[in-house]
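Worked problem 6 (solution included).
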Amino acid sequence: MPSAARWNVSPPSWNVANPDPPLRIVIITHAYPRWDGDVAGAFIERLCIALSERGHQLHVVAPSDEGSGGRERRHGIPVERVRYAPPEHETLAYRGTMTDAARSLGGLRRFMSLVSAMQGAALTEAHAIGADLLHAHWWIPGGLSARRAVRSEALPYVVTVHGTDVALLRRSRLGRWMARRVLTQAARVTAVSRYLAAEVCALCERDVIVQPMPFEVRPVTSASEGGGGIVTVGRLTRQKRLDILLDAMAKLPGETRLTIVGDGPERDALTARATRLGIADRTRFLGMVPPDRVAETIAGADVFAFPAEREGFGLAVAEALALGVPVVSLSDGGGVLDIVSEDAGRVVPPNDPDALAEAIMSLVGRPEARRRAATAGVALAAELAPARVAERFETILRDAVERNA
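Solution. The predicted structure is:
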């Protein structure tokens, strides 16, 4: 039977001093940082840098953004930003709106142009470096581009699913058909959580390796004992269920404050909801802020609330724990449940503002809750350090090459 291999791949026997040759890898992704501090695909760049530091050669293929295409080098890694439309129409990537945009005829044409452009660039890069394999992040568009690129090549490809791509499978029959072709033909498939791995196993009956992406705890200027109220971080979409968090806030004492970091299509609706609930004066919408400020905001929180449903993994949750902040999440939180336990916070039923409010108050002002969260965070930070995650991915990628040979 297909299985979701448990998080913790056996460490490889190869290291920098090992005679085995380094791998030559083409990375295909629709999200990759455009500047330092850009959050789009930052976890993929962390993995690429860590793999490069282990001696492997990587070339990245990613989309252009409003005409800013061409070749660049980021942290020593060549990045090819492919052009796929006139500059004013190169807006599919980096905004979290690709799926919605592709529902229109013009958007679908641009999407297929992006797939073709990434396919061609990946093949060009593979030939240029004599690549051993392609590694696509998200089965669509990256995995689809990889599959098309290797149809006439003796090259394997690996696909990593992150969450939004798996969500598409639940509502699109065409998406499921395409995903089966991409995922069943991949040499290896990895998922960032057990929840996503189970979804892939159910779709295409194949083994899936569970391996989260790496994260790093951003430094803060000083240690915090809390006092900053409730904090949440994420893109403001319906899936994040911030409406439930606002409803819970209305049930908390009047001195309790909520800080929301992030932006997205639901911001206006959430702002209006806070006003209707009478909590607008104690709810801050910070929008997008620099990474160091995100860390400072999380570190000062009493509780990190993350009410998202069916989340792929939740790196913001991992960062909160690493900063010693207890977390409240929902029982349908998907991959978040891989890292949040009663030791590190609370897990409550979905669609229950009363339970969410009660869980938040049970953690506010409790030093022992912060100590437990910090203990869990230290272990998590060590487990998902870039160097350690890169070591595991090295095993996965080398195995894919050996199986293909």
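Discussion: Residues 5-18 have pLDDT under 50 and may be disordered.
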